[in-house]
Amino acid sequence: MVVDALPGAGFDQNSRIRAVRAKADAFVTEASRNQNFGRTRELFVDASPTVRTYVRFDVNLKGDVRHVTLLLYSRKRLRTGYQARLVRSDWREARITYVNAPRLAPTFVASGPVRARAWKAVDVTSLVAGAQDSISFVLTSASVRGGVFSSRETGLHGPRLVVETMRNDTTQSTTTTTAKLPRAP
What we know:
seven-stranded antiparallel beta sheet
């Protein structure tokens, strides 16, 4: 996997960066309101008919979190990009449908334009403040041309959450030695 740069990621020696694969992902569509799409190899976003993608990561965000970045592999160009919103309700990959999907949060982070057959990194740090063990996002789009992303079922191209934290394992020790110095004549 090649990523040009992660927005906001530092190169501090005391930071720790880890990438977590999605634990669950699915899309829901207004066109098939009661159907589940939790085992597909592609995830979709679209404005008409409404199609949303849900992605969950099991990650511990305790400690000094510096940056959290959502990485998605896009299969199709999406000029208007997508919006990532935090989901606070539980959902299950094998049961989520348009009818029972969690509601949308009002705040979001916009991705900007998305290239085809490329990774898109989006800084979602502002959304995940206070979250700890499980983080879910819903992806939406205002585009009627829609976007297509690789799901976790594709393996290497599945969604990732990149977390940068300050290391807590750096300790400093100080040793003081007292020595008698010869007196000046």
